[in-house]
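A reminder before we start the practical. When you read a complex entry, don't treat the lines as separate problems. The point of joint prediction is that each chain is placed relative to the others, so the output describes one connected object in space. Small molecules and nucleic acid strands, if listed, are placed in the same frame. In the example below there are two entries. Take a minute to note the order of the lines before looking further.
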Amino acid sequence: MAVTVRLPGALRDTTGGQTKLEARAGTLADVISDIDRRHPGFRSRLLDDSGAIRTYVNVYIGDDDARVKGGTGAAVPDGSEVMVIPAMAGGAR
Amino acid sequence: MTLTAALVRERVRGTILERIGDTPLVPLRRIGAGLRGELWAKIESANPGGSVKDRAGLWMVIAAEEEGRLREGAVLLDATSGNTGVALAMVCAVRGHRARLVMPDKVSLERKRIIRAFGAEVVLTDPLEGTDGAIREARRLATTGGNVYVDQYSNPANPRAHELTTGPEIWSQTDGRVTHFVAGVGTSGTIVGTSASLRPRGVRIVAVQPDSALHGIEGWKHMPTALRPAIWDERVADEHRSMGTDEAIQMTKRLAREEGIFSGASGGAAVAAAVAIAREQGGRIVVLIADGGERYLSTPLWE
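Here is the predicted structure of the whole assembly.
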């Protein structure tokens, strides 16, 4: 089983134009690393040098904000959906 | 219909809306220390709705009334990431209009609650589409009848408010000695309108944008990847700069701790750009701080 990751248009340049990807379940860090293996540079767009979610990126696991579920250590179970939210006026073309 | 400041003042006399504009201009003594130029901050959180958007919100509503578009029973409609929504909701509450505001889901809780507190309806759109998704939904709703779409991104009353209020205030508050005006680009109403007022008087206009499409400077647009506002014209600025979110957040925190100015990230971004200009070019630099930090308390900015 896998998880679905939905991305804003602003990240499309790092994923070869895709805004919906599949990744292996695990922690949020595992999910991000899995995508980064296929799309190098993805991780650094979401996480800062200390490995924390960048302050201006919001990540939701289902309806839950990942920050309140343990940040990158939050569990992302099989079948769940991860959503990365852009800054409000950042454009989505 | 071309509005004048006198007409707008007359329409809102005796209400809270009279307090929109005439915001303070304060020196940034610590952040500006040791620079070649002086830094002065225009504090737009002093508007009754808490942001610079009160100016455009007021002028767009009065323009729609004067044009006869906003009649009894009509519903004002716009897309917004928050501050314009708060401003329009407040102005509509005073003027007796219904308001329907379209914004991306997951916008900060404060914004949604404030807008609803003023009695406006909030329509939420796909958060992955950002503000551009809200604009597309507002355009769709505008065709369904009964909605008066004010469209802050295309409405000439937006820059007009700044041409006839923000610009003249800055000129008067500096006794005509301002050399640079620095502001971010969102709808672009602030920079376009203030430029129309100050540039003919020899003031150098500096427009600042986020440095990438994925950024955290709320209210600003990364123009190369965003829907382009119809009112935007790059030629209104003498200089264009970009700003990273990390630097913006650092400066936002310095503003609070060193100057006692609690602002949103866009204020920090604009001030960081102004610091660079003061260092490189000198002069008397006025930078616009668009809103206050209270509006972002539930976001990671202040964690």
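Discuss with your neighbour: Strands of chain A lie at 2-6, 20-24, 26-27, 58-61, 64-65, 75-76, 81-85. What might explain this?
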